[in-house]
Amino acid sequence: MNVFKHFPELNGNYIHRGRDYFIAGFTFFCVAVSLVIDTHASLAFQNFLGVIAWIFLIGLLLGENREIRMQVAIAVAFATAGEHFASIYMGGYTYRLENIPLYIPPGHGMVYLTAVALARSGFFLKHARKIAIFVIWVCGLWSAWGVSGIPQQGDQVGALLYIVLLIYLFKGRSPLVYLAAFFITTWLELIGTAAGTWRWATIEPVFNLSQGNPPSGVAAWYCLVDAVAIGCAPILLQGFHKFGLVYKRIKTIVLNFRTILSKNKA
């Protein structure tokens, strides 16, 4: 069985686009700055960061096609709903002010777009297998450490999420997006938890398993967002297209009917 069947060819001639690396670098920078600033920010300043984040996201999307824009919109909607469920309702993790900061929804959009940009970049396409092996080893060792009994805080959830991440990588149809998601989400989780912007619950609320801060395989949650965005975007675009055709047909019928009525009156 070829576990790399959805990976790009080894010896392909891949193009490096500056835009892809700019999106990634810009998002990595914004994530670090915003999460550190939020450590002591007021609610009003959080809202200000949210406005700035929306401006940045919209600006980055100007250079993308309809499908990517739809994917980002779905990612933002799905992730925001997930934030309210997992944090506010379930208490799986808690933000510093016990809210969902206004910059989180557009932040999810930028994170998703970064995963897409890195996945299509020449570097990831050329070195996909090496990057996958690196991620497997790093996340695997991190997960093993969490359940080894050595750290004071165990991380059973992280180990389970690591297995889910492996399934995404080798069974999913967009493994490079999931690989890229590992880097940007691990980056933001390590910074966010270290800065105290949010904290994961010591015991997760559903199965009462130990949970790291952050869980080692936390990227799997973000991969779920990516999978939903990638899978639902074509369906919604097709639905909007059909709706547009129906609307045009109805509009034509109405105009023809009005024309007939006006002629009869004349």
Summarize the structure.
With 266 residues, the chain is an all-alpha fold. It has helices at residues 18-37, 43-61, 66-89, 104-120, 122-126, 128-146, 156-171, 175-195, 219-265, and strands at 93-95, 198-200. The protein has one domain (18-236).
Task: Report on the architecture of this protein.
This protein is mainly alpha-helical and 266 residues long. It has one domain (18-236). The chain is built from 9 helices and 2 strands; from the N terminus they run αααβαααααβα. It has helices at 18-37, 43-61, 66-89, 104-120, 122-126, 128-146, 156-171, 175-195, 219-265, and strands at residues 93-95, 198-200. The protein has a two-stranded antiparallel sheet. Helix 1 packs parallel to helix 8 and helix 3 (66-89) crosses helix 9 (219-265). The longest helix is centred in the C-terminal third of the chain and has 47 residues, at 219-265. The protein is globular, with a radius of gyration of 22 Å. The chain starts with 17 loop residues before the first helix and ends with a helix. The chain crosses the membrane at residues 21-37, 43-63, 70-90, 102-119, 131-148, 154-170, 177-198, 218-240. Keywords: Membrane, Transmembrane, Transmembrane helix.
